[in-house]
Amino acid sequence: MTRDDLFNINAGIVKDLCSAIAKYCPNAIVNMISNPVNSTVPIAAEVFKKAGTYNEKKLFGVTTLDVVRAKTFYAGKANVNVAEVNVPVVGGHAGITILPLFSQATPKANLADEDIKALTKRTQDGGTEVVEAKAGKGSATLSMAYAGAIFADACLKGLNGVPDVVECSFVQSTVTELPFFASKVRLGKNGVEEVLGLGPLSDFEQEGLEKLKPELKASIEKGVKFANA
Ligand SMILES: NC(=O)c1ccc[n+]([C@@H]2O[C@H](COP(=O)([O-])OP(=O)(O)OC[C@H]3O[C@@H](n4cnc5c(N)ncnc54)[C@H](O)[C@@H]3O)[C@@H](O)[C@H]2O)c1
Ligand SMILES: O=C(O)C[C@H](O)C(=O)O
């Protein structure tokens, strides 16, 4: 089962929950972790728009687990302490739409192109690897909880006025031509303080970016269409 297969089950659940959010807590920050995130975030946006409560600064798709995976795999390969590693992951939260930017990873390690390719694929397939290993018994429960906690904590820090809280998240965006896109986001007292750009990309990443756009666009449109049906 892919994240997209979950659409049929989760789209309706997300739509109902978002209708309730619009009614009972219209000012809440909403961190959408339900899959397929590439579609459920646009569904939420449409529901909120219809209810007149949409605030693009307060709707986030949780892609932190992709960052956690990218950091972990990079640290293993580069033989560095994972706690010191940073890797931005942009795009979306499914397969090739997940684009780790290892060229921007810190601390710097001179990994071979083949290693970068393998790390990218492993990051993109990490969720599927776990779903298949659990064979019908759910997804990456513990690491999802860990990633969710990191992201929720970052949101709370932003709300509390802690400066320079930056996490990757799938948000309304003008970073590319797509209406929603995951990139580094500065979090603040209003939710999204600033959506940060991509920075310099390697040729491999630039290629990955172009490849992911049609799939991400289709997933976004699928969500919008469902919400307005
Ligand atoms: N964004 C991420 O990084 C990430 C990571 C892992 C999993 N996920 C997603 O998180 C979701 C949960 O995954 P899981 O493995 O914990 O699934 P799960 O099947 O173990 O748990 C789903 C829970 O939702 C409850 N539920 C079902 N219908 C509901 C409804 N109408 N209203 C309220 N609750 C309802 C079920 O009772 C169950 O407790 C899935 O959509 C999964 O794809 C996202
Ligand atoms: O892959 C999935 O469906 C679950 C989740 O999105 C994950 O990244 O682990």
Structure, explained:
With 229 residues, the protein is of the alpha+beta class. It has 2 domains: 65 residues, Rossmann fold (3-Layer(aba) Sandwich), CATH 3.40.50.720; 151 residues, L-2-Hydroxyisocaproate Dehydrogenase, Chain A, domain 2 (Alpha-Beta Complex), CATH 3.90.110.10. 50% of the residues lie in helices and 15% in strands. The strands form 3 sheets. The protein has a 3-stranded antiparallel beta sheet with strand order 5-6-7. Helix 1 packs parallel to helix 2 and helix 2 packs across helix 6. The chain starts with 6 loop residues before the first helix and ends with a helix. Bound molecules: nicotinamide-adenine-dinucleotide and (2S)-2-hydroxybutanedioic acid (LMR). The site of nicotinamide-adenine-dinucleotide has 16 residues, from helix 1 and helix 5.
Give a quick summary of the entry.
The protein is an alpha+beta fold and 229 residues long.
Secondary-structure map:
Blueprint (H helix, E strand, L loop, with lengths): L6 H18 L5 E3 L4 H15 L7 E3 L2 H15 L10 E3 L6 E3 L12 H22 L6 H19 L5 E8 L7 E9 L2 E5 L7 H26 L1
Parallel strand pairs: 1-2
Antiparallel strand pairs: 3-4, 5-6, 6-7
Helix pairs in contact: 1-2, 2-6, 3-4
The site of nicotinamide-adenine-dinucleotide has 16 residues, from helix 1 and helix 5.
- At CATH's second level, what is the architecture of the largest domain? Alpha-Beta Complex
Order of helices and strands: HEHEHEEHHEEEH
Question: What is the domain total for the residues?
Answer: 2
What's the CATH class of the largest domain, please? Alpha Beta
Number of helices: 6
Mean pLDDT: 96
CATH superfamily (homologous) name of the largest domain:
Lactate dehydrogenase/glycoside hydrolase, family 4, C-terminal
Number of β-strand runs: 7
Rg, rounded, reads: 17 Å
Percentage of residues in helical conformation = 40-55%
Characterize the main sheet. 3 strands, antiparallel
Question: What's the overall geometry?
Answer: globular
Helix and strand content put the structural class at alpha+beta
Taken as a percent bin, the fraction of beta residues is 5-15%
CATH topology of the largest domain: L-2-Hydroxyisocaproate Dehydrogenase, Chain A, domain 2
Low-confidence stretches: none
Strand order, sheet with most strands:
5-6-7
Give the cofactors and ligands: nicotinamide-adenine-dinucleotide, (2S)-2-hydroxybutanedioic acid
First-residue to last-residue Cα separation: 25 Å
